[in-house]
Amino acid sequence: xxxxxxxxxxxxxxxxxxxxxxxxxxxxxxxxxxxxxxxxxxxxxxxxxxxxxxxxxxxxxxxxxxxxxxxxxxxxxxxxxxxxxxxxxxxxxxxxxxxxxxxxxxxxxxxxxxxxxxxxxxxxxxxxxxxxxxxxxxxxxxxxxxxxxxxxxxxxxxxxxxxxxxxxxxxxxxxxxxxxxxxxxxxxxxxxxxxxxxx
Length: 199
Description:
single chain, 199 residues, alpha/beta, Rossmann fold, 7-stranded mixed β-sheet, 6 helices, 7 strands, globular, disordered N terminus
């Protein structure tokens, strides 16, 4: 059933017509078109994956393994392994590594439920990003790519500096499909400086 909140949203309608589970698919498509973050043979970990629209896009970009993780259960996506749980917890991280010992790309579109308090919401979003970065640093292969959603504000620059410690190339990108008035953006980090040799 269509959420009345987005009924008049052009990209929401387009997503429904094209078979995507949410309009977020177009954000990843824009990021891919601009930055080429996923290659044909990449192993990809998608954090905060529900409802699965990024996973749908990923299956068209890579023939490598794709794993999606979220607190919410998702309908199956063909060719994708889905895990339900908190990716910041050690037990879930162990499960992820059992299935995907190493990844070429880690994506995180995870976001907190918004409270309406901008400072509080941004702090929670940055905390999620930090959790994603810590996990990425343990699973990415050398030279790998990390893409994470964040919200611009007082804590953003500090988080950006932390990302830059781990990657040779870091850029901030705001897809045109982002809703007007939103402080949402994506950090696109490439050429991971740590990690292991590709699996």
